[in-house]
Structure formats: structure tokens, C-alpha cells
Amino acid sequence: MSPSILAGLVGAALVGLGLYGLILHPHPLRKLLAFNFIGSGVFLVFGIVARRGAAARFAFDPVPQAMVITGIVVAFAASALAVALILRLAAASGKVTLDPEAWSGPDDGGAK
């Protein structure tokens, strides 16, 4: 197994783990980490695809590398914004969850 195939498989595994975490976990910080896993996997796979194209003696194309670098910067900025929003949610409500059952439970007071 060549290193590029191994890196591609690792990228695919990161995307799979990220999708799993994004779908199943209601906590916003875990969703943010899962989203970053997906982004890292996509960047890795995209870099490997660009590298394999260069290894196959296609013409040098700097666009994939530029897109990966731009994507890393955008992902960092989006993560910082998401952390700020999560902190604001925690400060405003005292709860940090996206689960709708957690929001409606304590306010009912058991009265019917």
C-alpha cells in the first residue's frame, strides 16, 4: 500500500467519523469538532488527488494547493465564529445543547 493510498483512506475515514459525530451528537462543541474532522478529511483527500495528478505527469496545477490553503483559513475562521456563538449560547441560556427535549423539560414543572 503506497503512502498516497493510505493518506486517501485516512482522509475518507476522517470524513466518515465526522459525519457520524455530526449526525449523532446533540452537543454543539462535538458537532463543531465533527465538522472540522470532515473538513480535514476533505483537505487531505483533495491534497492526495492533486499529488497523484502531479505524479502521473499531468501539467502542474497550483489550484488544488491554493484551494486547500484557502479552505484551511476559512475553516479556522468559521471554527472561531462557531466557538464564539457556542460561548454566547452558554452565557445567555446556561445550557449548551441542541437537543429540543433538554430545552422543554425543566420549564414544564410537572403541571398539567
Structure description:
With 112 residues, the protein is mostly helical. 80% of the residues lie in helices and 0% in strands. The chain has 4 helices and no strands. Helix 1 runs antiparallel to helix 2. The longest helix has 31 residues, at 63-93. The chain is elongated and about 60 Å long. The model has no long low-confidence stretch (mean pLDDT 84).
Number of helices: 4
Q: Tell me about the biggest sheet?
A: none
Helix amount: over 70%
Rg calc: 20 Å
Stretches where pLDDT is under 50 for at least 5 consecutive residues are: none
H and E order: HHHH
How would you describe the shape?
Answer: elongated
How many strands? 0
- Class derived from helix and strand content: mainly alpha
Our estimate of the beta-strand percent is under 5%
> What's the mean pLDDT score?
84
Alpha carbon gap, first and last residue: 64 Å
Main location: membrane
Membrane topology: Multi-pass membrane protein
Family: Belongs to the CPA3 antiporters (TC 2.A.63) subunit C family.
EC number: 1.6.5.11
